[in-house]
Amino acid sequence: MTRILVIKLAALGDVVQAFAPFAAIRAHHPGAHITLLTTAPFAPLTKKSPWFDEVWPDGRPPWGDLRAVARLAWKLRRAGFDRVYDLQTSSRSSRYRWFVGRRAEWSGIAPGASHPHANPARDSMHTAERQRDQLSFAGIQDFPPPALDWLDGPLEGFSLPPRFCLLVPGASPSRPGKRWPAACFADLAKRLDAPPVVLGGPAETPLAAEILRAVPAGLDLTGRTSLLQIGALARRAECAVGNDTGPTHLAAAAGCPTLAVFGDDSDPALCAPRGPAAGWVRHEPLSALPVEDVLEGLRHLR
After folding, report:
1. Does 254 score more than 80 pLDDT?
2. Per CATH, is 3-137 categorized as 3.40.50.2000?
3. Topology of domain 165-301, per CATH?
4. Distance between CA atoms of residues 3 and 149, nearest Å
5. Domains 3-137 and 165-301 share a fold
6. 192-208 burial string, b = 16+ CB within 10 Å, else e?
């Protein structure tokens, strides 16, 4: 049996935007044993998907932890992979070619790759187009829409209102320029047709509190949802509005009408969420983005 390794380590938005490549790889190798090398936060999500026979969550040990690095190297070498699709295409993942062994075919940017992504414009391409282009260099030409019926989780106990909109006011703590102010989300929430349900990690709870002071009928789910539950919420929501962050990408992929807001800290031409009803608005600085522009963007999605 052909053994395939797919590498996608992080982050959430990038993992979500790899759903289509994951599906294409599975369709191209229907009888192969396919392993995903990822990191622990994304293992429960990807294990539920139909694209992998195994998911390894130990894909990014600290370089200083020599024992963990050696364990991963030995694991990769002894697995006997026939082909590797490196969708992370980082300096770290490229080094893993030496762990896997030079016998395996390699799609990516690692030196000596058998199927290098040799497009000089790759760094100026949107993530979705870049990965599709990479796979085309490896002989994959069929890109079926990824099945996402598995992207669901239990919602009992959340006391959801009959109708609601998702708001995602957080983003990477190291990149505050990606955050539209919570006061703007609060102003938006007052003008939506349905009460807000606020998503994010525990660190976003103060942002949720500020929003819900403006709209007490809303619901704070920060720190309370799994990634699969975010998918379930997105399936049921009227719409979603969020910063350029993982849950916004996940909502868009699940089919929710989703608008992402961008400033000058990230470029929608390279990383805007993709989905059947996804869009974006951009303003520099992001803090000055008018609520009216967001409402207009939502109207175009419906």
Report:
1. yes
2. yes
3. Rossmann fold (3.40.50)
4. 26
5. yes
6. bebbbbbbbeeebbebb
- Residue 247, classed as helix, strand or coil, is helix
Question: What pLDDT shows up at residue 177?
Answer: 86
| CA–CA dist 143, 57 (Å, integer) | 26
Strand bridging mode 3-7 / 33-37: parallel
Interatomic CA distance for residues 302 and 171, integer angstroms: 25
The token pair at 128 is 């979705």
Specify the amino acid at residue 170: G
- Domain assignments of the chain as residue spans, ordered by start: 3-137, 165-301
Q: How confident is the model at residue 302, as a pLDDT?
A: 74
The whole-angstrom distance between residue 288's C-alpha and the CA centroid of its chain comes to 26
| Residue 192 to residue 190: CA distance in whole angstroms | 6
Lateral strand order in the sheet of 196-198: 219-220, 196-198, 165-168, 240-243, 258-262, 278-282
- Please count the other Cβ atoms lying within 10 Å of the Cβ belonging to residue 140: 19
105 vs 114: CA distance, rounded Å: 5
- H or E element in which residue 230 lies: helix 227-236
CA distances from residue 186 to 166, 213, 251, 261, 291 in whole angstroms, order as listed: 12, 8, 20, 15, 10
Mean predicted confidence (pLDDT) in 8-27: 97
Q: Report which of 302, 185, 192 is spatially closest to residue 245, judged by C-alpha positions.
A: 185
Tokens of 32: 């192969």
Find where tokens 């990191």 sit. 39
Going by their DSSP bridges, the two strands 219-220 and 196-198 should be labelled as parallel
3-class secondary structure, 269: helix
Does the pTM of the predicted model rise above 0.90?
yes
20, 230, 54, 228: which is closest to 143 by C-alpha?
20
Q: How far apart are CA 160 and CA 59, in angstroms?
A: 36
